[in-house]
Amino acid sequence: MAEKAAKKTKTPRVAMPEQDPKVRARNFLEVPTGYTMKMAQEEASRCLQCRKPGCVQGCPVGVDIPGFIDLIAHGDMTGAIRNLWTKNALPAVCGRVCPQEIQCEGKCIVGRKGEPVAIGNLERFCADYEREHGTGELPPRPNPQARKLPLSEPAHPA
Ligand code: SF4
Q1: Is 154 among the domain residues?
Q2: Which pTM was predicted?
Q3: Which residues form the Dihydroprymidine dehydrogenase domain (predicted)?
Q4: Ligand 1 pocket member 63 (CB < 6 A)
Q5: If you take atom 8 of ligand 1, which residue's CA is the nearest one?
Q6: Scanning 11, 19, 112, 119, which has its CA 20 to 30 A from the CA of 46?
Q7: Assigned domain for 45 exists
Q8: Cα 67 to averaged position of ligand 1 atoms, centre (Å)
């Protein structure tokens, strides 16, 4: 088990492909082009499925990171996006713009000895996969009964 974990820690992170500089200089498309399914599964297989996942503690909305990553590793993309939606309705955005290096990825145990699992890239992949291959289903709407705090109200009154 420890041997398996050490091997995963040494496995390099799967780099996301990017447009060639000469091509990207002539268009306004995103520079990173996204993982393929094979790349996503390879990256997902680097996750140690920690029992006490630091990555979840580092995520402001508490996404079940090992859960959705495990679903990707097993090719269950329908399950992976729905798992994400339980905590985050905007994985395409968060996978692109969240500062993962100081949040989830900054707390990933694999990052202690190697490169952290590319959680943001995997989140983005789930959302893009759903957009391209999904049923068009939208994330569930938030519970209207849930209490909303006005911005001026402190979450933890002194
Ligand atoms: S801390 Fe890293 S290795 Fe552990 S569950 Fe989270 S992503 Fe996977």
Answers
A1: no
A2: 0.88
A3: 24-134
A4: no
A5: 47
A6: 19
A7: yes
A8: 10
Question: Is 120 in contact with 100 (CB distance < 8 Å)?
Answer: yes
Nearest CA to ligand 1 atom 1: 108
Residue 12 domain-assigned (yes or no):
yes
CATH of residue 122's domain is 1.10.1060.10
Give the CA distances from residue 64 to residues 51, 70, 107, in Å, rounded to whole numbers and listed in that order: 12, 10, 14
Q: Which atom of ligand 1 is nearest to the CA of 107?
A: 1
- How far away, in angstroms, is 95 Cα from ligand 1 center? 16
Q: What DSSP designation does 32 have?
A: B
pLDDT at 158: 44
Quick: pLDDT tens for 101-134. Answer: 999 999 999 999 999 999 999 999 999 999 999 8
Instruction: Encode pLDDT of 86-103 as tens digits.
Output: 999 999 999 999 999 999
> Cα–Cα distance between 115 and 113 in angstroms, integer?
7
Q: By the 8 A CB rule, do 138 and 90 touch? A: no
Separation of 54 CA from ligand 1 center, angstroms?
A: 7
